[in-house]
Design brief:
The structure is a single chain. The chain has 493 residues and is mostly helical. It has one domain (13-192, 258-492): Up-down Bundle (Growth Hormone, Chain: A). The protein has helices at 12-33, 39-46, 50-53, 55-75, 80-99, 104-114, 120-131, 134-166, 168-189, 203-226, 231-253, 267-295, 308-314, 316-336, 338-358, 363-389, 397-425, 436-457, 468-472, 483-489.
């Protein structure tokens, strides 16, 4: 069947589709920026502890991790447009709810609703694959993959400056305005959902995966408060591991799984999954350390005592460099091959954390560190969609991308917790601030992570044969690839 996107010149709606899809990714970044930088302000405004205020960040990640694979599966069928619009309505409602001065409970409930926005990027990628011709879908998919990374440096300074100038709730009103604009644009531009059979939602799989991820992320977020050797932490972690194992067994046995784990047997998908998890870990291990370092008062013997707004500006080079990488890397990968290009991205990230370990005495050095780090992370995230799109059938794109996105969120949470744990281990009893050696240790830990990833990503799978995906799924027919799928696979060759 001919792809309508390739028939004739693009219409106005088709030309507007890519900017609208990118705006959905940037909305996810804005939602994320309403979390970590505002935690101290929430604690002060609501007169609660930092641990209680931290739930304004934790609950968003928990909801996002749980709903993202469900939204991805629903978005693989004829309800994709409805799922996207419903998620945008939920984000808008959550921003308004958080913006109302009704107490911490109302704010956390609003932040939970905003978590649905974290599942939008995989659906945007699936939409770009289905609705755009190959020459436009390849760069669009690469750019969509790094929007959440690029938005870190763009959203943090904007929301931080708004909250610092006009108060805490003004930041959430800003999020509501952005959400409303994205909802209107999406309603006007999004194409009709693909004409595919409605996928049957795997409710047992959704419950098992949601409970396992919620338990793991809760354990990670509360580890510092409960203690790493506490009984309830170990029990929660053990139960989460059991639930995750039960989910994997269920997914392999069910006819219509939430995430088709048989596809993850493919070495390309395995590479993309490991890269997403580790890149997310390495990214937040550095970002969490840098933002805390910059805000530390200089009388501690290090740090710059910067405000939330200035701290956000330190992350701006991270965003700009990641967007630059998103433009450069896809054509480079098509010429040199992903097996060469992906380890280079890991090496760039290694250079960034090594620089942070050795040179952080001047503020400009941190700007340089974040620029290099942004280029390295953007480099890798720009490649991941091509790896997945080139390895899974079209009707599994949304589900596979959603699972990859979940792995990113797990990496983000793990990196943030590791940073806090290392710094806490270097905090002398009776003191509030860690010693400067704690930041060096965190950076060297990140160096070890990226060194290992260089080895892992240096060995990529060979070029796949036609019909290989279908042949690996029991009972599946070997269906010839469409021209769009052939073109998409060029990203990984």
């Amino acid at each position: 069947m001919e792809n309508p996107a390739t028939a004739g010149p693009p219409s106005g709606r088709q030309r507007a589709l890519v900017p609208v899809l990118i705006s959905l990714g940037m909305l996810v970044a804005v939602v994320s920026s309403l979390g970590a930088p505002l935690v101290p302000t929430i604690a002060a405004e609501e007169h609660v502890s930092l641990n209680d205020a931290q739930w304004s960040l934790t609950v968003t990640l928990l909801v996002g991790a749980v709903v993202t694979p469900v939204m991805g599966r629903l978005g693989d069928g004829p309800r994709r447009r409805a799922v996207i619009l419903a998620a945008l309505v939920a984000v808008l409602t959550g921003c308004v709810l958080a913006a109302l001065p009704l107490g911490l409970g109302c704010l956390i409930a609003g932040r939970a609703m905003q978590g649905l926005g974290l599942g939008l990027v995989p659906l945007a990628i699936a939409t770009a694959r289905d609705a755009l011709p190959p020459e436009r879908s390849r760069p669009a998919v690469a750019m969509l993959s790094i929007t959440t990374v690029a938005g870190v440096g763009l959203g943090y300074p904007v929301t931080g400056l708004i909250a610092q100038s006009f108060g805490l709730y003004a930041g959430y009103w800003f999020g509501a305005a952005v959400s409303a604009a994205a909802l209107v644009a999406a309603a006007m531009v999004l194409p009709a959902s693909p004409r595919r059979a409605a996928p049957r939602l795997d409710l047992p799989g959704a419950v098992l995966l949601g409970a396992a991820l919620a338990g793991m992320l809760l354990a990670l977020s509360e580890a510092e408060l409960w203690g790493w050797s506490s009984g309830r932490l170990l029990a929660l972690a053990g139960l989460s591991a059991l639930l995750l194992g039960a989910w994997a067994v269920h997914e392999l046995r069910t006819a219509r799984p939430l995430v088709d784990l048989r596809l993850i047997r493919d070495r390309t998908v395995q590479t993309a999954s490991v890269t997403a998890l580790v890149a997310g870990l390495g990214m937040y291990l550095l970002v969490s350390s840098v933002t805390r370092f910059v805000q530390t008062p200089s009388d501690a013997g290090y740090g710059f005592g910067a405000s939330v707004a200035v701290t956000g500006l330190v992350l701006l080079p991270f965003s700009l460099a990641s967007m630059a990488a998103g433009r450069i890397v896809p054509p480079l990968a098509r010429r040199a091959g992903t097996a060469v290009v992906l380890p280079v991205g890991c090496a760039v990230s290694l250079a960034a954390v090594l620089t942070f370990a050795l040179a952080r005495g001047q503020l400009w050095e941190l700007f340089a560190v974040m620029a290099v780090a942004g280029f390295g992370i953007g480099w890798m995230f720009a490649l991941l969609p091509g790896l997945i799109v080139g390895a899974v059938p079209a009707h599994e794109t949304g589900s596979a991308m959603s699972f990859n996105q979940v792995l990113r969120y797990v990496g983000y949470s793990t990196g943030s917790v590791l940073s806090a744990t290392v710094l806490q281990a270097h905090t002398v009893t009776g003191h509030v601030l860690p010693t400067g050696d704690g930041y060096r240790t965190a950076a060297l830990l990140a160096c070890a992570v990226w060194s290992a990833m260089i080895v892992v990503t240096a060995v990529l799978p060979p070029r796949r044969r036609r019909g290989a995906v279908a042949a690996r799924v029991p009972g599946a027919a070997v269906v010839p690839r469409t021209p769009d799928e052939d073109a998409a696979r060029e990203v990984v060759r």
